[in-house]
Amino acid sequence: MSRKIRGSHNRRKQRLKVSRIHETVENRRDDLLHKWSNHYVQNYDRISIEKLNIKEMLE
User: Fold this and answer.
1) Domain with 16 in it
2) For 1-59, how does the pLDDT look when each residue is reduced to its tens digit (9 = 90+)?
């Protein structure tokens, strides 16, 4: 897109192509996260989150 002339029709078309590619990548990431979270919910009874203090554990 950097090689296109500002304000031109081709630059607008290229901007739309780039935005579609970014949207596709974002959707793939969201889909993967949804599949993993769904897997954990379906296969495990309890899910917990623990906040660990790594610095004190290293000492």
Assistant:
1) 1-44
2) 778 888 899 999 999 999 999 999 999 999 999 999 999 999 998 888 899 988 888 87
Number of domains in the chain: 1
pTM: 0.62
Q: What is the 3-state secondary structure (H, E, C) of the chain?
A: CCCCCCCCHHHHHHHHHHHHHHHHHHHHHHHHHHHHHHHHHHHCCCCCCCCCCHHHHHC
Identity of the residue numbered 13: K
User: Within a domain: residue 1?
Assistant: yes
User: From CA 15, how far away is CA 22, in angstroms rounded?
Assistant: 11
